[in-house]
Write a structure and sequence with these properties.
Elements (H helix, E strand, L loop, with lengths): L28 E3 L8 H17 L2 E5 L5 H16 L5 H6 L4 H4 L4 E3 L5 E3 L2 E2 L2 E6 L12 H5 L1 H26 L6 H5 L11 E7 L4 H6 L2 E6 L5 E5 L6 E4 L5 E3 L7 E5 L1 H6 L9 E4 L10 E7 L15 H6 L21 H10 L8 E4 L2 E8 L2 E6 L1
Parallel strand pairs: 1-2
Antiparallel strand pairs: 2-12, 3-6, 4-5, 6-7, 7-14, 8-13, 9-12, 9-14, 10-11, 10-13, 15-16, 16-17
């Protein structure tokens, strides 16, 4: 989608980091450049660090993943032009407003105020969500984003096909499967980002009365896809639920990326690859007047992938697994009723930001039990 004349971009200048005394999660940092090292010791170091991060933390930092600081800053500048600098016109916001309750997809522009955060408090988030089909030629994008669509497609193709593929290779190895297994048999490949989506999101500074009523801007949740790749940014608000049950902030790492796994991997790995719960809180007082701009790719599985635990995995066969599907009266899970990735994805979108309604405890772990197409599905909470 080449554009002859493009709106100049204002340089992205990251906000200052907070000086507040906040508790940060002690997340591991994976130097992804060592993934392609000629030295087997380097490659094994990446795998062992990655494995420990997934099993113990559920979140990790990536560095040296193949993009320059200039390329990263350019994506922030594009999102800044659209969301902070009001590059999306009022007419475009109305025409492209998402209709996720009709489509089961987050396609398009999201205005503020869709979700209840607390009594008298609505969400304060604007975002624009891209799917593979909306990156094609046409009127799917506001003009400011259409001007830079080639940059956005190139950026996402690299994240999806290079960075994400390496992550799936490491995850396949954790399941003792061929390193191409998850890429070949699980990850979707329809367009530059498959069936996943790319999101530019901006949290407006919260009014003082909102900050008093609610410490949370986005409630705790797991991502429903395969992997999430989020560019690191300085406003302290993202928190991860640590293994000890405490919420801790995710610290800014310049030029880095924050990675976590989605529910698809938790389902098919029988719990060996956990989707870690996270949330967005109010930021510290010294950042309260700043816009919080975030950019992330949410990858997805093939539409027809069954979410049943993988029978191919030697790890699951040897160590067992936790099924997220309740058995019938005969004690057997009806495999014909286990949802596909597409069915689960649509269902999760339709009830996004919906609190748990049927909490059950299994082996000391709390789950939100959802009745879905004839079978009960257990979501960890």
């Amino acid at each position: 989608m080449p554009i002859a004349t493009r709106t100049p971009l204002r340089p992205w200048v990251p906000p200052a980091e907070t000086k507040a005394d906040v508790e940060y999660a002690n997340l591991r940092t994976i130097d992804l450049s060592k993934f392609d090292s000629d030295r087997s010791a380097d490659r094994d170091e990446v795998y062992q660090e990655f494995k420990a991060a997934v099993k113990e933390d559920g979140f990790l930092y990536l560095t040296n993943f193949g993009l320059t600081q200039e390329q990263i800053d350019r994506q922030f500048a594009i999102a800044q032009a659209a969301l902070i600098d009001n590059g999306i016109t009022d007419d475009e916001k109305k025409r492209l407003e998402w209709k996720y309750l009709n489509t089961g997809k987050y396609t398009g522009y999201k205005p503020r105020g869709y979700w209840d955060i607390a009594q008298g408090v609505k969400d304060n988030v604007e975002s624009f969500n891209f799917y593979s089909e909306t990156m094609k030629a046409g009127d799917h994008l506001p003009n400011i984003l259409r001007e830079y669509a080639d940059d956005i497609v190139e950026f996402n193709t690299f994240l999806h096909d290079v960075v994400n593929r390496k992550l799936l290779s490491l995850l396949s190895r954790m399941l003792e499967l061929p390193e191409s297994y998850l890429w070949d048999k699980v990850q979707s490949h329809n367009g530059p980002i498959g069936e996943g989506y790319f999101r530019q999101m901006m949290f407006h500074p919260a009014p003082a009365e909102h900050r008093k009523k609610s410490s949370v801007q986005m409630h705790g949740h797991q991502d429903y896809g395969v992997t999430t790749l989020l560019l690191s940014q300085p406003i302290a608000a993202l928190q991860v639920l640590s293994a000890d049950g405490n919420w801790r902030f995710v610290k800014y790492k310049k030029g880095g990326m924050v990675v976590n796994l989605g529910e698809v991997l938790e389902f098919i790995s029988g719990g060996h690859l956990p989707a870690t719960r996270h949330r967005v809180t109010q930021c510290p007082d010294d950042q309260a007047n700043q816009f919080r701009l975030t950019i992330g790719l949410f990858t997805a599985a093939n539409n027809d992938l069954s979410l049943a635990p993988l029978s191919d995995s030697p790890l699951l066969a040897r160590e067992g697994f936790v099924s997220r599907f309740e058995p019938g009266a005969d004690g057997v899970v009806d495999a014909t009723k286990i949802p596909t990735a597409e069915q689960w994805r649509v269902a999760r979108v339709l009830r996004s930001q919906t609190p748990p309604t049927d909490i059950v405890v299994v082996n000391g772990v709390k789950y939100n039990r959802q009745y879905f197409q004839g079978i009960y599905v257990l979501e960890p909470i």
